[in-house]
Amino acid sequence: MTLPDRGVLSRREYLKGLVAVGGASALAACLEEESNVEIPAGDPDAVPARQHAWNGVLSGDNENVVPARHHVLLSVSLARDPTDEDRERFENALATLERAYEWSHEGLLFAVGYTPQYFERVGWDSLPEPTALTDFESPEFESGDCQIHLASDHSQAVLAAEESLLGEVEEVNGVEMDSDIADLVGSRERLTGFVGPGLPAEHQDTPGVPDSEPIHEEAPFFMGFRSGFEESQATEDRVTIEEGPFAGGTTRHVESIAIDLRQWYEQDSQFQRVAKLFSHQHAAEGLVGEYGEKLDDSNALSAERIASTLEDARDHGVVGHAQKAARAREDGEPLLLRRDFNTTDGDRPGLHFLSLQREIDEFVRVREAMTGADLAADSAVGSITNNGILQYLTVRRRGNYLVPPRELRAFPDP
Ligand code: HEM
Predict the structure, then answer these.
(1) Distance 196 CA to ligand 1 centre (A)
(2) What pLDDT, in 10s, does the model give residues 69-114?
(3) Domain count of the chain?
(4) Which region, left, alpha or beta, applies to residue 33 given φ > 0 means left and ψ of -120 to 50 means alpha?
(5) Is the residue at 362 inside a domain?
(6) Nearest ligand 1 atom to alpha carbon 295
(7) Is the pLDDT of residue 403 over 80?
(8) Is the CB of 67 within 6 Å of ligand 1?
(9) For a substitution probing ligand 1, which of 321, 335, 398 has the most ligand atoms within 8 Å of its CB?
(10) Ligand 1 within 6 A of CB of 351
(11) What InterPro entries has UniProt attached to this entry (predicted)?
(12) Contact residues for 342 (Cβ-Cβ < 8 A; gap 6+)
C-alpha cells in the first residue's frame, strides 16, 4: 500500500493513515513526523499479572475510561509448532517491549490472544471455534494461531512494536530488540483502527462516509455517539477467568463490522438515531444530547427501561441497540468489557468490535440479545429494520481468542 500524502492531510489524519498502512516505511514516516515526541520507557516489573489490565493505565474522562487512540490487531499463522526455545524468545521480545515503553496509553499496551487452531497444536480444546451468530451474516473466520492487540496514543509505538516482533527493526524507543518471532510467522493479517473525539469526523473523504451530514466533531465513533460508559461495561474482574489452566486470563471476541453510514446519516433523523442506538425514551426525553454529552458515567438505561424493550417494540415500533443488548446483564451487571475501535480497513468505514468476557458463551448470549430475534417475532419490529442498528451493519469477520495471564502469554502449553 502507498503511504498517505502528508501534503493534503492534517497531522492527526496522517498518523492514523500510517497505522492503517503499516510496515517499515510507514514506521519511518511516523518517526519522522513525531520526531519531537518523547515516549516514556517502561519497567517489566511494574506490569500487572493480567494482560488485560489496561483500565488503570488508560486516561479518564469524568468517570469513564478513555481508550487509547491507535490500535493494531496483528494475527499470525505459525509456520510450525513452537518449541520451548521459541517460547523463551517470544517472552523475551515482549518483555523488551515492556522495557521500551511505559505500560500505559502514553507508552504501549498489548495483549496476546490464542485461537482454537493454536490450542489444537498443544492438545487443548476448551476454546470454541467462531461461528456465524445471526441468520443474516456469512463472515470470514480468523484462521491464524495468535493475535496481538497493540494500543497506544502514539502511532509510532504500535507500528514499532509490530515491526520489531516481525524482525523488521532492531531498536524500539531506544531499546535494542534482541529477539523476535519472524521465523515462526507463516502468514499474517492486520486489522487497524482508531478511537477518540473528533477522529471519525476527519474521515469525511473516505468512501462510504457521507459529507452531507457531517459526523459531530466531538464524536469518538463513526455512528456519532459516545460509548463505553462505566456502568455499561464489565469490570476487569468480571471478565477474568477464575479457574483452570488459564485462571487470571480472559477471552476475546473480535467481530469486524462494515457500517452503512450513508443510510445512517442520510435516511435517519437525529431522533431516530438516538432511538435506534439507545432507546425510544432517550430520544423522546432528549437524554443523550448531540453525541452523548448529556450522559455521564452511565448510558441512562434504567432496569425498567431495559425490561420494557419488548413493550417499546410493540408500542413505538423501534428498539434501542443498547437497550436490548442490556437485557443480557446478569444481576444488573454487564458481561462484556468492550474495547472496540473505528476502522477504515478496506477503505470503508467500520468497527472492529473487540470485547473481553470470562467465556465466549457470554459474548454469544449478549450478541443474541443484541440481535433480538425474539423482538422481531413478537412485534412490528423487523428482523433488522428498526431493530436497533442491525440494518446498518454487515459482519465481515469473527475470531475467538483466549488471552492467558501474562506469565503464560508466550505460546502457552496447558
Ligand atoms: C457498529 C457497531 C456498534 C456500535 C456503533 C455500537 C454502539 C453502542 C452505543 C452507542 C452504546 C450505548 C453506550 C454505552 O452503553 O456504552 C452501546 C452499548 C452496548 N453495545 Fe454496542 N455498538 C456496536 C456493536 C455492538 C456489538 C457487535 C455488540 C455485541 C454484542 C454490542 C454490545 C453492546 C453492549 C453489551 C452495550 C451495553 C449494554 C448495557 O448497557 O448493558 N455492540 N453500543
Answers:
(1) 16
(2) 999 999 999 999 999 999 999 999 999 999 999 999 999 999 999 9
(3) 1
(4) alpha
(5) no
(6) 13
(7) yes
(8) no
(9) 321
(10) yes
(11) Dimeric_a/b-barrel, DUF7405, TAT_signal
(12) 193, 194, 195, 199, 200, 221, 222, 349, 350, 351
